[in-house]
């Protein structure tokens, strides 16, 4: 069964950066659109960024200019570079494709 595992979350101060990783097993990520989603407490899960198999990327307005999604085919991993973080970015972050189900996610907490 295809599976994605998220990692890289943690506690960071406002203005700081984190780089999340989404690693696939039994799935070749370069063949799929991979989306990064976040779910803050009490809110619905929402799409933050995605990278298509072509390499084209899209971002939610709230993260444009701050987040960057990329893919490293050799490691079968998709990354989410998160810069200029603020407390509103606090959430559990997930990655997903159409061929996979939701994983455990990785917690990002932005706080001083």
End-to-end Cα distance:
40 Å
- Provide the β-strand percentage band: over 45%
What count of helical segments does DSSP give? 0
Structural class by SSE content: mainly beta
**What's the Cα radius of gyration?**
13 Å
Listing every helix as H and every strand as E from the N terminus to the C terminus, the arrangement reads EEEEEEEEEE
State the major sheet: 6 strands, mixed
Strand order of the largest sheet: 2-10-9-4-5-6
Identify the overall geometry: globular
> Could you estimate the helical fraction of the residues in percent?
under 10%
* pLDDT averaged residue by residue: 97
| Poorly predicted residue ranges | none
Total strands:
10
Task: Using brief descriptors, characterize the structure shown.
10 strands, mainly beta, 4-stranded antiparallel β-sheet, 48% strand, 112 residues, 6-stranded mixed β-sheet
How are the SSEs ordered, and which strands pair?
Blueprint: E1 3-7, E2 10-12, E3 18-25, E4 34-39, E5 46-51, E6 57-59, E7 67-72, E8 77-82, E9 91-96, E10 106-110
Parallel strand pairs: 2-10
Antiparallel strand pairs: 1-3, 3-8, 4-5, 4-9, 5-6, 7-8, 9-10
